[in-house]
Design goal:
There is one protein chain. A hairpin with a 5-residue loop joins strand 14 and strand 15. By secondary structure, the chain is of the alpha/beta class. It has a 6-stranded mixed sheet, sandwiched between helices. It has a 5-stranded mixed barrel with strand order 1-2-3-5-4. The chain has a two-stranded antiparallel ribbon with strand order 6-7. 24% of the residues lie in helices and 23% in strands. The longest helix has 20 residues.
Length: 303
């Protein structure tokens, strides 16, 4: 979605923000409190869909619901979950049940990198299983990582402090403990949590709609519906030529390849592949890159 279809306005004047939507009704945070509003049909014709996180202009009419008349330019946009203007995505990862999937983590991280959204890792259920090896993979390349004990909430206060004053979202598989983490970060926000359905192998997550909550430290944080491994494709695609730039640790190893257009998949004299062989780059990260690149190429050739 291009921002030239949106109305420009200085950030200091963008005071009304969508913090939730359900059944076509938008909850908008204004300087005077929260209001329910509808959007104009003209947005559909313009190819613009207001989403939580958007800064908007409201038209107030006597004896009528406020109407969203303008959506201002976004710094970032996720299609699923529909979120705009995120500073960071808190990627919630369970140490067990569901078992961490490195490819899913790397794909999400790549998507966030491509959109300029900071990725923060929150590893949950550390009271049930060890996850230090996986944590080290991401912390070694500069990602902020936190360990959360779901029984005691230990570690949640560090996340709360880190997101202070920022717009963030908790994102992760169904059943990883997003709502439990939310309860520790924002204890005044009531969230029901449920056990994973062992029979179905997926969670009975109670979060159905995207909703932002304002915290005392100035953070604006969203809890989002859980996703299954299959649904990950709906988070967005990255052009094949841009996949390499979404793996931040690869940059210093991609300049000395024999071919300038090296895809770093099977070419000879590839400095990136040599870095993987020597242990300078995690094999799991490289495998994820190869898979994402080949998926992107296949998608481009199909369409």
């Amino acid at each position: 979605m291009t921002t030239d279809r949106l109305t420009s306005k200085p950030l200091s004047e963008q005071r009304n923000r969508i913090i939730g939507v359900s059944g076509g009704i938008f909850t908008v945070e204004t300087p005077d409190g929260e209001v329910s509003a509808r959007s104009r049909g003209v947005f559909r014709r313009k190819g613009v869909k207001p989403v939580p996180g958007d800064y908007v202009e409201l038209l107030f009419e006597e004896n009528a619901e406020p109407v969203i008349t303008e959506v201002y330019p976004r710094t970032s946009l996720l299609v699923r979950p529909p979120l705009a203007n995120l500073d960071m995505a808190v990627l919630v990862v369970s140490s067990c049940e569901p078992k961490p999937n490195p490819f899913i983590l790397d794909k999400l991280t790549a998507i966030f990198e491509s959109k300029g959204i900071e990725t923060v890792f929150a590893f949950t259920k550390t009271d049930m299983a060890e996850v230090e090896q996986l944590v080290s993979v991401y912390s070694a390349i500069g990602y902020k990582t936190f360990m959360i004990n779901n029984l005691t909430g230990e570690g949640a206060d560090f996340i709360s402090a880190y997101i202070s004053g920022k717009t963030a979202a908790l994102i992760g598989n169904t059943g990883v403990g997003k709502s439990s983490l939310m309860n520790y970060i924002a204890p005044t926000v009531l969230h029901k949590t449920s056990e994973i359905s062992r029979k179905l192998g997926r969670g009975r997550h109670t979060t159905r709609d995207v909703r932002f909550y304002r915290l005392e430290n100035g953070a604006c944080i969203a809890d989002t519906p859980g996703f299954s491994t299959v649904e990950i494709s709906r988070y967005g695609d990255i052009p094949s030529a841009e996949v390499i730039s979404c793996f931040r640790e690869f940059g210093e190893y991609t300049h000395d390849c024999r071919f300038k257009d090296c895809a770093h998949i099977k070419e000879s004299d590839c400095s990136l592949r040599e870095a993987v062989s020597s242990g300078m780059i995690a094999r799991s990260r490289y495998d994820s890159y190869c898979r994402l690149y080949l998926e992107a190429v296949q998608s481009e050739n199909t369409y």
